[in-house]
Amino acid sequence: MNKPDFTKYMDYGELTSALEDLVKENPGLSKMYSIGKTYEGRDMWLVELTNFAKGNPDEKPGMYIDGNHHAGEVTGSAVCLYTIWYLLSNYGEDPFVTELLDEKTFYVLPRISIDGAEIFLHTPLSLRSSTRPYPPRDREEGLVPEDIDGDGWILQMRVKDPDGDWKVSDKDPRLMVKRQPWDKEGPFYKVYPEGIIKNWDGGEIRVAPPKWGLDINRNYPANWEPEANQRGSGPYPLSEPETRNVADFILAHPNIGGAMSYHTTMGAILRPSCTKPDEKLPALDVAIYKTIGQKGTELTGYPHVSTYEDYTTDKAHPLKGVFMDWLYEHMGIITFSTELWDASVRAGNKLFDRQSRSSEEGQLNLLKWNDRELAGKAFSPWKKFNHPQLGEVEIGGWKSKFTLMNPPPQFLEGECHKNCLFTLYHASCLPKLAIEKVLAEKLSDGLYKVTVTVKNKGYMPTNVSQQAIAAGRAKPVIVEIEGSSLQIVAGKAREDIGHLDGLASVGRSYFGWAGEPAPSRKKEVQWVVKGQDGMVVRVKASSPRAGVAEATIRLGE
Length: 557
Prior knowledge:
Elements: H1 12-25, E1 30-37, E2 43-49, E3 62-67, H2 75-90, H3 95-103, E4 105-109, H4 114-122, E5 142-145, E6 156-160, E7 166-168, E8 176-178, E9 189-193, E10 195-198, H5 241-251, E11 256-264, E12 268-271, H6 283-300, E13 304-306, H7 307-311, H8 323-330, E14 334-340, H9 343-346, H10 354-358, H11 360-373, E15 379-387, E16 391-398, H12 409-428, E17 433-444, E18 447-456, H13 466-470, E19 478-482, E20 487-490, E21 494-496, E22 522-530, E23 536-543, E24 547-554
Parallel strand pairs: 3-4, 3-11, 11-14, 12-13
Antiparallel strand pairs: 1-2, 2-4, 5-10, 6-9, 6-16, 7-8, 12-14, 15-16, 17-18, 18-22, 19-21, 19-23, 20-22, 23-24
Helix pairs in contact: 1-2, 2-12, 6-12
């Protein structure tokens, strides 16, 4: 199988071609289709992966994976593409992968902010998500980012100013550090993004609000708040075609029980909730998150953390309208959101430590890493430039797109591989229905007792999460019996047996749930039926997120 090039970041055309090639080579395991169009009219391509010869894909436990909610976070698209390639190339070779594709369905949407990613990849500009101008305003005012020196990058400008709040580090002339109250001898500087000042009156310089201010990962219904309270949230929940398409797809696939959404940059595996601490969540759900998250840490080296407790810096203003919270709170889907890549840790700074990253020492470590590993190419030395409005300035700084925000190309495949493995292990934890045994006991001529034992062999319960029950998204396990000319004397042809616990529930007393009913991973269903010796009886157990299990037995045998 042809392997995509995982040493480059693909634009829309290249990514589409790579997906088409993989699907064309593997028609029995994959198909590709659009779930809708973006703001600019591009198709949002999704690849569905499963062994189509082994059951209806919509009746298998589903794992949803996406990347690139944010335009510049193109590493997420690469991990999605790698996951597709890894599953297809290892089917039939790796028993773990083979079992996953036989029993589960993967839905992989590599890129959500497609329009924005085109701008990010093909121009010096950066943006958060969509290219729809938002919020609307009468005219542009303030400093607008622009590549004014024509070198292909939008960096920083430093301007000498006796009232400036920055100075040059005495440890490395490339590094700008904050001026301290006791600093009296300059030179001092003002530091701005490289750009042009629109409608400037010659007074104070303010950075203009972004032209493209939408953050579509604040546009989902969970805890959504308007722009005044949550920047970038959009005019109303699911106002954007990209988020609406994703939500419609999730709602149309009730078999989805697990999800992964890839972002950058922090080097951390985030989990719900964005708005409340663990103590406010169902205890079993937290235990499931921690167990799966720990496997993620072992595979990736990233810590697994509560977004609210460990990631959010301002607890009074937590993140609202986030995709991960919508999937968990409204849909009951066990969801992680991995912040891929952390150049700061590569440089020797502390793991998951904002203070370490931003300190002078942390920045010096980054510069040393750039010199050592990247031949100094990621940082542009300060150079004088005659700005059309400000006169002499100096332009320089980090070429951050593919060093700080995304890995340098030579590190990309390694980032893809370890995160792909974590997502596959997450998928392996989904519930799995099985019929453990079927018995048919002859009571008298033409009368039989049929007994079936249904078991959940998976780690998660068949409802996936307790939150799914609370949100009304947990369908019960249904057990059905049928046969030609079969008559049911006692019992129902279609029995609702509720939910079955998973392996996660076996250690309930461990988590302080003493006094609750003992975990039940299997249940027995019985019928009394009329039939004849040799008649074939079929039994079927099904639940949207736990799959389907079937068995047959002949009466009288």
